[in-house]
Amino acid sequence: MLGRVNHIAIAVPDLKAAVASYRDRLGARVSPAESLPEHGVTVVFVELPNTKVELLEPLGETSPIAAFLQKNPAGGMHHICYEVADILQARDQLLAAGARVLGTGEPKIGAHGKPVLFLHPKDFFGTLIELEQV
Amino acid sequence: MLGRVNHIAIAVPDLKAAVASYRDRLGARVSPAESLPEHGVTVVFVELPNTKVELLEPLGETSPIAAFLQKNPAGGMHHICYEVADILQARDQLLAAGARVLGTGEPKIGAHGKPVLFLHPKDFFGTLIELEQV
């Protein structure tokens, strides 16, 4: 079921500082910042040769990463996004295997304009997993 | 400086259960478990098309992931490993930019038989970064 690692998401309290760190200290290529009010985040991509790291800063008062940053004020690894060919089939297979899908269980359109679902971290050893249909 | 994401490491309290979850629920290919007493971990690789996820279980009484699992008993994302072409050059560039390298600052031979260094998570927004010379 799992395809490529689409991205690894890291929540940060200060996106400007994080961009400077990845670009200037680590010598990585970083995309311009993009504000996504409907997703409650401002995002940049650190572009690596085989995948990308997504740096996320909260945007607005109901950001989905606000609670994470309250618990981890310095920031931290937030989730891993895997590509799947058919998100409904993946969901049904996971539900049949006893895994929990967050929210309503229906895919939403994610930050990249594609259908996504999140799986409960308690079912995957503390790791929040995003599935994205590509 | 940063090359490919070599792996994303996830610490788990129960490797057998984690393997079953990634293989049977997520339908991923998982390598056989390998015990690395000199690194204090037992490891498997979840093989994705573009990178791999390393599942780590503590081995022995001085495992470097024991403290992490005490703080995160269910498990969690532990570090990201990036490939670099020249680890000494990378280290010197990072030190000159004010970043901290863990331990003695000299590369050690990592779990894959290659020279590795770890960077202080406080300098990278709560993310533990491993550099591996390939």
UniProtKB/TrEMBL annotation, chains A, B:
<feature type="domain" description="VOC">
    <location>
        <begin position="4"/>
        <end position="134"/>
    </location>
</feature>
<protein>
    <recommendedName>
        <fullName>methylmalonyl-CoA epimerase</fullName>
        <ecNumber>5.1.99.1</ecNumber>
    </recommendedName>
</protein>
<dbReference type="GO" id="GO:0004493">
    <property type="term" value="F:methylmalonyl-CoA epimerase activity"/>
</dbReference>
<dbReference type="InterPro" id="IPR051785">
    <property type="entry name" value="MMCE/EMCE_epimerase"/>
</dbReference>
<keyword id="KW-0170">Cobalt</keyword>
<dbReference type="InterPro" id="IPR029068">
    <property type="entry name" value="Glyas_Bleomycin-R_OHBP_Dase"/>
</dbReference>
<dbReference type="InterPro" id="IPR017515">
    <property type="entry name" value="MeMalonyl-CoA_epimerase"/>
</dbReference>
<dbReference type="InterPro" id="IPR037523">
    <property type="entry name" value="VOC_core"/>
</dbReference>
<keyword id="KW-0479">Metal-binding</keyword>
<keyword id="KW-0413">Isomerase</keyword>
<dbReference type="GO" id="GO:0046872">
    <property type="term" value="F:metal ion binding"/>
</dbReference>
<dbReference type="Pfam" id="PF13669">
    <property type="entry name" value="Glyoxalase_4"/>
</dbReference>
<comment type="similarity">
    <text>Belongs to the methylmalonyl-CoA epimerase family.</text>
</comment>
<dbReference type="GO" id="GO:0046491">
    <property type="term" value="P:L-methylmalonyl-CoA metabolic process"/>
</dbReference>
